[in-house]
Amino acid sequence: MIRRRNSIDDDDEFIGQIPGLPMRFSYEELRLATEEFKEKIGDGGFGTVFKGKLGDGTEIAVKRLDKLSQGMKEFLAEVRSIGSVHHFNLVKLIGFCAEKNCRLLVYELMKNGSLDNWIFSTDKRPSSHHQLNWQTRKKIVLDIVKGLAYLHEECHQKIIHLDIKPQNILLDENFNAKVSDFGLCKLMERDVSQIQTTMRGTPGYIAPEWRLPRITIKVDIYSFGIVLLEIVCGRKNFDGTRSNSSSHLLKLLQDKAMENKFLDLIENYDEEMMNHEEEVLRMIKIAAWCLQDDHTRRPTMSVVVKVLEGVMEVEEESISYCFSHALAHPVLAPPDKVSEPPQASLLHIYHSPSLRPQLTFGLGASSSSFT
């Protein structure tokens, strides 16, 4: 339970009146936990992340928000809403610090960093890293799907993440995958199927329907499809060092599907992959299913969970391998950079009416926050 400190500070008094907030830390506690913010482990659009350790030995990632575009009320409203969303496959927000001009967020530390450090064979990895085996990749895929299914279908309000990419999938010491970075998310009432919002996300993972005035949770399904393709194939969705015919992974999928040579997509088709050829092909088809131009033909995440668990089969007759947008991704920002968020969000899952101001995004864990 959060105790209000003896202070005449208005912000302090306001914080003490809000129920349901996660653990509150003082700035001094986090300064000591991070050894004066000594070990920087990540940067994001909204702040810098440092490694730390609490007095009980719990390792943490402390995100210091550098862009204070929010007032205290708005900041606490977002902290409360994000802190109330709990699932094993979502990175946990442990607590926060709000003292005058200081805003810090405390997350669980994910020791194996972000997924992109493990799946792209051309990336330089620390010597302790290794190529993920097929069984681990399968588990990571299922973890991501379960996390997204929870956001889309099991929360009090539907949550659209809007920036699913390997940099925002974090791995713990046992390679359990957890979805992070809710800085761009939008919420929808459960009886609403689509919302109007400004375009946001990361180039290469943005669904084609963003050019329309309204979107659905299926934009996340599309982004997941790209991530799944990258996990299986071991290469990025766009690689400017390759020839024009093979630089776009989605265009290559379209071409190889016409030739029925799906396995040519895989960067390192080794013996282990050969031993699981049927599963590999199935994963590629699931990815294609999630990448349909027509968002109504994409499966929900709960359906993908059932397919991955063997309860349902891939609806191959529903899959079109004609991706008309394959070479037409909107270029909003340089690769691996998130587009600037709009000035207001709807992060108010459990807020009282008094905590429903217009909110700015800023609580998302950066793509490398916990590496």
UniProtKB/TrEMBL annotation:
Gene3D superfamilies given in the database record: Phosphorylase Kinase, domain 1, Transferase(Phosphotransferase) domain 1
Reaction equation(s) it catalyzes: L-seryl-[protein] + ATP = O-phospho-L-seryl-[protein] + ADP + H(+); L-threonyl-[protein] + ATP = O-phospho-L-threonyl-[protein] + ADP + H(+)
InterPro entries, per database record: G-type_lectin_kinases/EP1-like, Kinase-like_dom_sf, Prot_kinase_dom, Protein_kinase_ATP_BS, Ser/Thr_kinase_AS
Chief place where the protein resides: membrane
The protein's enzyme class: transferase
Highest taxon of source: Eukaryota
GO annotations of cellular component type: membrane
Stretches assigned to coiled coil: 259-286
GO-annotated molecular function: ATP binding; carbohydrate binding; protein serine/threonine kinase activity
Homology family: Belongs to the protein kinase superfamily.
Protein name (database record): non-specific serine/threonine protein kinase
Source organism of the structure: Forsythia ovata
